[in-house]
Fold Protein ImuA.
Amino acid sequence: MSESIKSLAALKRHIAALDRTPAPTAGCARLATGHAGLDAALDGGLLRGRVHELFGAAEEEGAAAGLALILARLAADDAPLLWLRTTASARAGGSPYGPGLAALGLNPARLLIGLMADEAMLLRAAVEGLRCPALGALLIELRGRAPLLDLTASRRLALAAEQSGVTAFLLRVGGNPVPSAAETRWQVAAAPSDPLPGNAPGHSAFALSLLRRRAGPDGLAWRLIWDGEKGAFGDGRHERHEHGQDGQQGGAPLSGALVPLPADRSAADRAA
């Protein structure tokens, strides 16, 4: 318990240091992803200063984590990005994979990782983090049922995000949706990627389904292709136009999104 208290106190001190130079935030601003269809359906993009849930089955952990990190990176821009996990999550999912993070366009110098002893401590730290307007975005990783993340807990997170303007992404690995105050709820899976010239591995690809939206239609789905060089999502149409109607150039589309986790597993485990 004493170690948990020390860790949370250290995180609060770090956040307080960031808070001395708060970044300006705009009310009801939107985060454009670059994917025309997705942004149009969301009236310009994801609302900033809100909580967004991303669900991924246990076998889709790499895709869900990758997309959550990309969205958090886009929301953070040049400001710090805080990723909160429990020590159990870190053991189960492994440590961040450096080359994978680089391919997602993440600057390691802007990524802060907080390891909490348990989910109760993690949720307390998440509220504290969201109260710091100097943060660019917050990624909260929870696994399984996460019984402490009830409607009341999600409302605390939503209120803190609205007050500071910091956008939060709830990464739910192997969990099932329950009532929450999140602005949007998504299901994430890996999608086939189109090979690049020379049949090289293609960009990371994601299958994204909108399960719930507080204001607007849901039940929509998209295929997102992440272009790290452009720093935006597309749908692969440009690549299919260049390489043929079916998007192939000498082979079938490659399966799976780039996996940023973990560094301490075998290559076979990472590809699974």
Summary: The mean pLDDT is 82. The domain at 53-271 is CATH 3.40.50.300 (Rossmann fold). The radius of gyration is 18 Å.
